[in-house]
Amino acid sequence: MNVNSRFFKLISVLLILVVFAGLGCVDNQSENESAGTMENGAENPSAGTGEVLTIFHAGSLGVPFEELEAEFEAQHPGVDVQREAAGSAQSVRKITELGKQADVLASADYVLIPSMMMPEYADWYAAFARNQIVIAYTNESMYSDEINADNWYEILRRPGVTYGFSNPNDDPCGYRTQMVTQLAESYYADSEIYDDLILDKTGMTATAEENGTVLVHVPASESLSPDTSKIMLRSMEVELSSALEMGEIDYFYIYRSVAVQHGFKFVELPSEIDLGSLEYADNYSKVQVEMANGEVVTGSPIVYGVTIPKNAKNPELAAEFVKLLLDEPGQQIFIENGQPPIIPAIAEGKDSMPEEVQALVE
């Protein structure tokens, strides 16, 4: 049974228990591919005086993980939690390709853990939160008084309107942007939406497969050639958040949770295309995205995953952090930040998880 089948078999049993109110979408923070952005450490009075817990996480987890950090450090005096936010694929590659050590890895797409880390770099993962894609904007965005769920793609087409999304090679929100825009063609009965908004303005291509799916091909990052008069392409959505706030772009594709956390206005897209509903999982799967490294990702509901890499320096502390994340305090933090947790979290490789975490997962 493949990973997606395994996950959806489990989650269907728990569907009535899933809290699904107020979802989200953004996965980045300005960072060098090899170095990464450290979100804290120097300002923490405990830094350098005790143990360090290193966490690599999706940029869209920045706000809830900041709160988890504060709670964890309050519970563990002398421990310094140091977080690096990046696109999820980047975060994984830091471990698998660059040889960096992390105590906790949290991805905006749980599939990256089994597909890129298991079994060599990780033994298990837990799927712990959900999200959905929206189109974020501000009052200063062009046509902000007109845009809605029925016309957003027409607004983006208009002359002078600029929009952004993250690099699909680095960030799940980037390849999910391709899926959402491609799915929009059938939902709105307009076969030119993806062509007009992305295909004709980047180095990406798309082919229709015999089984009725569409496969989007993403070239190497250096070969992506966005029309900068229309599109801002960045490695992570955090950079796009700043661009929106500064008026450098009018709109961008992002997770609902991030839009909520930043106070942005946003267009809530139809459930049939926003990657946020289990009910439409079959519809989402009609689009696949092939990244430059050859990895193919199939459209599916947005689910976040967490693991403790095999090279963790402090696996015991890491287990305590994951326990906080998956238990009631962590669930409440996510609910308050517009990102519904999966209750209980759903695990693969449960027998390999720390004992104190096993009781919190299905």
What does this molecule look like?
- By secondary structure, this protein is α/β, with parallel strands linked by helices.
- Helices cover 31% and strands 22% of the residues.
- It is built from 13 helices and 17 strands.
- It has helices at 3-13, 62-75, 88-96, 112-116, 152-157, 172-187, 193-197, 237-245, 256-262, 281-284, 315-326, 328-336, 355-358; strands spanning 24-25, 37-38, 52-58, 80-86, 104-107, 125-130, 133-137, 163-166, 205-208, 214-217, 231-234, 251-255, 265-268, 287-290, 296-298, 303-307, 341-348.
- The strands form three sheets. The protein has a seven-stranded mixed sheet with strand order 2-4-3-5-16-6-17, with helices on both faces.
- Helix 11 packs across helix 12 (328-336).
- The longest helix is centred in the middle third of the chain and has 16 residues, at 172-187.
- The radius of gyration is 19 Å and the shape is globular.
- Mean pLDDT is 89; it is low at 1-37 and 41-48.
Outline the secondary-structure elements.
Elements: H1 3-13, E1 24-25, E2 37-38, E3 52-58, H2 62-75, E4 80-86, H3 88-96, E5 104-107, H4 112-116, E6 125-130, E7 133-137, H5 152-157, E8 163-166, H6 172-187, H7 193-197, E9 205-208, E10 214-217, E11 231-234, H8 237-245, E12 251-255, H9 256-262, E13 265-268, H10 281-284, E14 287-290, E15 296-298, E16 303-307, H11 315-326, H12 328-336, E17 341-348, H13 355-358
Parallel strand pairs: 3-4, 3-5, 8-11, 8-12, 10-14
Antiparallel strand pairs: 2-4, 5-16, 6-16, 6-17, 7-12, 7-13, 9-10, 14-15
